Amino acid sequence: MSVPTVEMNGVAFRYPDGRRALDGVDLHVHPGERVALLGPNGAGKTTLVLHLNGILLPEVGEVRIDGIPVVKGNFLDVRRRVGIVFQDPDDQLFMPTVQADVEFGPANLGLRGEELAARSRSALEAVGMGQAAGRAPHHLSFGERRLVAIATVLAMEPEILVLDEPSANLDPAGRRELAEVLDQLAITMLMVTHDLPYALQLCTRAVILNQGRIVADGPIREILADRELMAANRLELPYGFDPAGW
Amino acid sequence: MKLAATLLFVGAVVATPREAFWVFAGHAAIVGTAATIGRIPFRFLARRLVIEIPFLLFAILLPLVGRGERIDVWFLSLSREGLWGAWNILAKATLGAAASIVLAATTQVGDLLLGFDRLKVPRAFTAIMGFMVRYLDVIIGNLDRMRVALRSRGYAPRWIGEARALGATAGSLFIRSYERGERVYLAMLSRGYAGSMPDPDHTAAPAAEWIGAALVAGLAAGLAAIGWILR
């Protein structure tokens, strides 16, 4: 089998205040997979995501990205491979113009000049925001800012795209447009979300995290249809939604 | 390059001797030309100039309180020295402010930052300015939402004791901004930030721009120099 893009072995983590956030997580994501990471609030989803690029380091266990251990000397390499799109695009877009922001990541990787410009152009075009390059992030709509935030990460040509609540705060049209953009990206994806229909639409596999442990891992349709499992983990489908009927 | 020209122009204006009325007229002509080229309506310029009114009020006081030889104008006895001082402030402040307004009105913030960069202002300063520009809107939006939430719960302070909620608002605004700062930092780390902002491409300013800037600055400096010689 191929080298997994993400490999977490027995990862445990405790916050400085003693709260246990991850309690022995084993997770493998293989190239080309699209995985939804589900779980109630406070389950440790965001903590897990921050382990993928070394923002947080495990107390116990190890994390590997494309076989490369996530340890201090490898941060730049790992952060190029793992593209995290945070929930609030205002946190992610901090440069005065869209283009400068998209160029921030690849410039940190050492790209300059025409190469850098080409990267940012193709990243913006991949999310359909090519016309926004010269604009200021605060002049864009929320949905546009989310798309640009994704472009800032795509510009680093990551191996895996990690999205934290991609559909949050989007209007229905923006939500659909984002799904169309994500669907045509040929990239491994890990999506943290409470929006279960969205997860079903875009992902083939689901992982449920609860109290710092992975309690279920399998094809998303089966997981969403397992009423007991869902109820035990505070997961609920929207009223009238039937995963089998999709 | 407009930035360099503006800085040098303001320097020249300040260096102009105050007795040289015609030199000030020359300076004004330069700003006027720049404003015309930039298609800035006069009313826009005039409205923005309101910012210097506090300084002008101070200038008006000078002739009244100044010392030395006095001149009687109508029913007021004015100080000669004070009059010169007032004229000096009035002329130089107006010209300086007008030049800055022309610059600001014809330049995008991004270009302004790039200009500072080309003038070798340290990266840290331009980065901070960039962050300020970017997040001012976000923070003001935050404040607006908090204000609306306060009002929606019937908050309408009428005396000072009721203003406590405002203090709390300021406090939580500070904490929110601080937390945002941390999240932004995480986002930067995730994209390979390692302690220094990437250098923007040092495409030097085109020669034509340099010549234009040198022309404006040189003209103003020349006028100032002639003013000193003919004094």
Please give the order of strands in the largest beta sheet of chain A: 6-7-8-3-9-10
Instruction: Return the structural class of chain A.
Output: alpha/beta
Tell me the helix content of chain A. Answer: 25-40%
Q: And the CATH topology of chain A?
A: Rossmann fold
The strand count of chain B comes to 2
As a whole number of angstroms, the C-alpha radius of gyration of chain A is: 18 Å
Biggest sheet details of chain B: 2 strands, antiparallel
| Topology order of chain A in helix (H) and strand (E) letters | EEEHEEHEHHHHEHEHEEHH
Give the class of chain B from helix and strand content and strand pairing. mainly alpha
Strand content range of chain B: under 5%
Unreliable stretches of chain A (pLDDT < 50, length at least 5) are none
**Strand fraction of chain A:** 15-25%
How many domains, in number, for the residues of chain A? 1
Please name the defining characteristics of this protein.
heterodimer; A: 246 residues; alpha/beta; Rossmann fold; six-stranded mixed beta sheet; 10 strands; globular; B: 231 residues; mainly alpha; 2 domains; two-stranded antiparallel ribbon; 9 helices; flat
